[in-house]
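Renewal narrative, Specific Aim 1. Our central claim is that a sequence can be written position by position from structural information alone. The example that follows is taken directly from our test logs and has not been curated for this report. It begins with the structure tokens describing the chain, in the order in which they were read.
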């Protein structure tokens, strides 16, 4: 696997900005198993961009398949 094929790593601030949520909300979502847990690398926690996208697709699947 080459580095080019690896998904980007997102820190907590970036995930929160992308989802328009507060850091505490993200922590609670992870704690309640409503969002994938981050991976600790040293003193930082990261989320795979792919994992965040998959969560968004699952979360909004019913809304996007809605038909009047």
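The sequence written for that structure reads:
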């Amino acid at each position: 696997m080459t580095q080019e094929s690896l998904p980007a790593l997102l820190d907590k601030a970036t995930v929160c900005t992308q989802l328009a949520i507060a850091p505490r909300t993200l922590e609670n979502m992870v704690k309640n198993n409503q969002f994938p847990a981050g991976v600790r690398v040293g003193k930082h926690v990261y989320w795979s961009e792919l994992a965040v996208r998959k969560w968004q697709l699952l979360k909004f699947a019913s809304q996007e398949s809605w038909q009047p």
